[in-house]
Write the structure tokens for this entry.
Amino acid sequence: MRSCAVDATRLHLTMKWVVLFSNLSAFRARSRLDTYTQVPIVAVGLELYDDATNTINENGVQIKQWFSTEYGPGALVENGRVLVVDEVDDTRTTLAACVAELRKRHNPAEVGCLVVHNN
């Protein structure tokens, strides 16, 4: 995976892309994206750290929430193009787990990754 800085005002999603927000913290970027693009959005909830102990979960990344493919934007993911948006890519563990699960469950034709860094 490569990382690059992207300004939401310059992000042009052409063709049919579904934007997948991984974790609730990435939703901060959603409002900016909604302002400049009109793309379908789905969300997942993943957890690497145990909030009670502030340590990494014994079993690695835990899936807390996944989107439905039966209706709405989720139905576009199968064999579609998906941009995974995450925030703070320190170890890439959560991002890698999200992409692996996405490929396993939905077989998207193309997957892109965008990491949002708040300054």
User: Anything to note?
Assistant: Residues 63 and 101 are 9 Å apart (CA to CA). Residues 1-11 have pLDDT under 50 and may be disordered. The chain has two helices and seven strands. The first strand starts at residue 17 and ends at 22.
